[in-house]
Amino acid sequence: RADFVFFNGRVHTVDARDSVAEAVAVRDGRILAVGSNAEVRPLQRGGEAIDLRGRTLIPGMIDAHAHFGSYGGTRLGIDCKAAGMESIAAIQAAVKAKAATLPPGTWIRGQGYNHMTLVEKRHPNRFDLDAVAPEHPVLLTRTCGHIVAANSRALDLAGITDSTPDMAGGRYDRDGGRNLGVAYDAAQGPLLEVSGLPEAEMLQALRLANADYLAAGITSVHSAGSMAGPELPAMQLLHREGGLDVRLYYMVWVALGTNEGLRFLETGLQTGFGDDRLRLGSFKVMTDGSSSGPTAATREPYSSDPTGEDRGILYWTQEQLDSMIERAHCAGLQCTMHAMGDRAIESGLTALERAQAAAPRLDPRPRIEHCGLCPPDLQERLATIGVSPAMQPAFFWEFGDGYLVNYGPERVRSMFPAASLIRRGVHVCGSSDSPVTDYRPLHGLQSALLRQTRGGQDCGQAERVTLAEGLRMYTANGAYAEFAEQSKGSLERGKYADLVVLGENLEQVPAAEIRDVPVDLTMSGGKIVFQRR
């Protein structure tokens, strides 16, 4: 007897043949059967029957790279992407209003500003923020997550002064001898260390993220590290309380002046430790900056740089990166790295090759997070090594107009080259990098199909994917990238009953309207965890 039977639908199973069925039966948290109405409906026998009425049913979507706790943290702070926040003056007004509600000394946090789209065409700085919140430490994170703006109180708490030098992999904006409080990449480290959310607020942030992701049809997240403070203890607490309905694959990372990942190597724990709700994932090393900052490490200078010298920020020497990746590889951890620019991707591939040569492992399944500027020579190496890249198609929508300026049309054409890599047999994963951009996977799916900017410009139409390929990016390929393809990522007998009912037949929706298709129901492990009213 089935607990649930879904029937009369367009069931995209995302199995090896991309089969489309009519009905699905669920029992004891698993898929019992998939097939025609005639085959599946008799299994109901008192269970709940849900008539899909021609709507699409797909596997639960997997966001293969998101900052889960950081996204929840943005819900507790100032949303610098909100309507009306198009100027530093508007940001100042929001900070001032927030300060009026908090005791002096309390942190004020905000996320999502983009200096390139602000009226002033610059970052807010310490003096802008001091003017409206002199008694509160303030930290605003640029939309990319690689640049922050801090006021004097925050700089004091982090031990940063006018004489603090730039560091390897990071720098500060300065005006003469004055530190302006705008920190890039690794220079953010001291500020992030002192501004993290306390555990109670992190727990609240995780609850908000859990609810929002389920409502968007996401049942699994590869959590790529928190910029809002330590999140693993709060994740464990939420799980023990039974409040974690999203399945989390947790990455440990080496980044931004922190040593979390290197310390973790000493525990002896390996990728896969945990259970079906919270598992230890990959060892992640930050290697360069952001695509939109722009601070990604590129082979050739930025097209927008009048000096012809700016090639972004590379965090490590090749020897340093090789050493960290080899240590993690030998410790039994899946290895990955944030690599956005082609110079960073090349360095990362070399480190992965050398680690496997030094200590061959059966199916290490390496990854690269982002894999932005990836021309054909790097695509070939990536496929040969067997790397699974976690890409963010929605970046084209939000940042594409800037990409065309900063990198030029030729490089943008092969940016996030999903179609080319899929043709090479690569398991390309779809993800959001939330809160960097919109967490909704249907928004990302639309961008993968269109590759268009907010301003309507094209970003390499040859790299558009089909609907079937896009669905696989956000389901089966994400499962593969976390060694979970036997238990989720497709609708097949015996796998977890993680599934999503969409409000329309997705095949009949124009690509330009996919992101607006409603999620009607989300099921995780046979339990309905979201239902649209």
CA-atom Rg in angstroms: 23 Å
Largest sheet: 8 strands, parallel
Strand content: 15-25%
Q: For the residues shown, what is the average pLDDT? A: 95
Structural class: alpha/beta
Q: Can you list the strand order of the major beta sheet?
A: 8-15-16-17-18-19-20-21
Helical stretch tally: 18
User: How many beta strands in the DSSP annotation?
Assistant: 24
Extract low-pLDDT stretches: none
Shape: globular
Gap from first CA to last CA: 28 Å
**Which range best describes the helical content: under 10%, 10-25%, 25-40%, 40-55%, 55-70% or over 70%?**
25-40%
Detailed description of the structure:
- There is one protein chain.
- The chain has 533 residues and is an alpha/beta fold.
- The protein has 18 helices and 24 strands.
- The strands form 4 sheets. An 8-stranded parallel beta sheet has the order 8-15-16-17-18-19-20-21. Strands 3-2-7-22-23-24 form a 6-stranded mixed beta sheet, with helices on one face.
- Helix 2 packs across helix 7 (199-215), helix 10 (318-330) crosses helix 11 (342-358) and helix 13 (394-406) packs across helix 16 (441-450).
- It is globular and about 75 Å long.
